[in-house]
Amino acid sequence: xxxxxQVAHPLIQxxxxxxxxxxxxxxxxxxxxxxxxxxxxxxxxQDLSTTEVDVTTPLTVTKCQQLTQRIGLxxxxxxxxxxxxxxxxxxxxxxxxHLGLYRDxxxxxxxxxxxxxxxxxxxDLALVIDPMLATGGSACSALQVLAEWGVPRTKLLSVIAxxxxxxxxxxxxxxxxxxxxxxxxxxNDDKFIVPGLGDAGDRIFNTQRNQ
Length: 211
Ligand code: PRP
Known about the structure:
Blueprint: E1 4-6, H1 10-20, H2 26-44, E2 50-56, E3 61-67, E4 71-77, H3 84-90, E5 95-96, E6 99-103, E7 110-115, E8 125-129, E9 132-133, H4 137-149, E10 153-161, H5 163-172, E11 178-183, E12 186-187, E13 193-194, H6 200-205
Parallel strand pairs: 1-11, 4-5, 4-6, 4-8, 8-10, 9-10, 10-11
Antiparallel strand pairs: 2-3, 6-7, 12-13
């Protein structure tokens, strides 16, 4: 079974408190998503492989380490977009492949509306990013697309997760580690994460009034 890692760090706890607060503005919410995505990415990338290279400093030539694997960031639209920039900042050479999925409000099932992965060789490692893992339907749909593309290694990064979603991903994708800032209590009858933070996509893009 894949690992589900709740990254315990005081900075994560601190920024999560502001993120959850219903009084936090969309601008403040976006800032917190950036901070938490960066902290999650730092944890998720600690086992990346590196290759030795020669670097000429102003004084001499020395051995250094550099990333050589192809890394893909896979944001699940819309909310996953909020996590792209801070991670791309850490991994400027990463490729970003968008997957458009929304959750049908009646059935809570994921509906795919955008996927344009290349036919060329898949990336070596794909980081699937989405602030919320609720039932796990959207994450599993994204991981299935990546499996069909032939990606050998995947990790799922979510800010908050419900135990139900973690269990679903673990059962369908046992080799995919899941990194989260918080494993919340449960899903409510509408399949929303409790205590949660509301709808991340709406809070990032200031579209809550469309609910
Ligand atoms: C939310 C969230 C995840 C999904 C989680 O997206 O960002 O993608 O729901 O739910 P699941 O685990 O039950 O599939 P939403 O459908 O609201 O779309 P949005 O990002 O466009 O707001």
